[in-house]
Amino acid sequence: MKLNEIRDNEGASKNRMRVGRGIGSGKGKTGGRGVKGQKSRTGVSIKGFEGGQMPLHRRLPKRGFNKPNAIELNEVNLGRIQQAVEAGKLDQANPVTNEALVAAGVISKPRDGVKILGVGELKAKLTFQVAGASKSAVEAIEKAGGSVTLLGAVAQA
């Protein structure tokens, strides 16, 4: 087989149907749109319209609420922090803060802070200054000889 011999399998692609090109084509005159009415015209889309009946998306009740001043945190697992320490991106001498994690490439945006989660294993002795930490994360950090300082009004959970 040569590059100039490569082609689709037989019947793999169909030619485009050209509508509205004379009655003899089988798709002429109305072009497959039926006759008359709004939907036979061009540029019509009636999404969600139910003939005047109240549409489904308006019959159903509204649910939920987006808090306008919600605190948006980055969630980082201990395993990911250990990877950064082993790669030499996080310095064990300096405290682990939001800015340090951004500089190390562990998180991309600083947002409102960092919450440490307990998935993975931490072997390095680190000092954390973060907005939040799970109970399992705090236990694992203290077991490794480190400490956690919680900043701001984010509750420990």
What would you say about this model in short?
By secondary structure, the chain is an alpha/beta fold. It has helices at residues 56-59, 78-86, 98-104, 135-143; strands at 74-77, 114-117, 127-130, 132-133, 147-150. The model has no long low-confidence stretch (mean pLDDT 92).
Description of the structure:
- The chain has 157 residues and is of the alpha/beta class.
- It folds into 2 domains: 14-64, no CATH class; 74-150, Ribosomal Protein L15, Chain: K, domain 2.
- It has 4 helices and 5 strands.
- It has helices at residues 56-59, 78-86, 98-104, 135-143, and strands at residues 74-77, 114-117, 127-130, 132-133, 147-150.
- The strands form 2 sheets. Strands 1-2-4 form a 3-stranded parallel beta sheet. It has a two-stranded parallel sheet with strand order 3-5.
- The chain is elongated, with a radius of gyration of 31 Å.
- The termini are far apart.
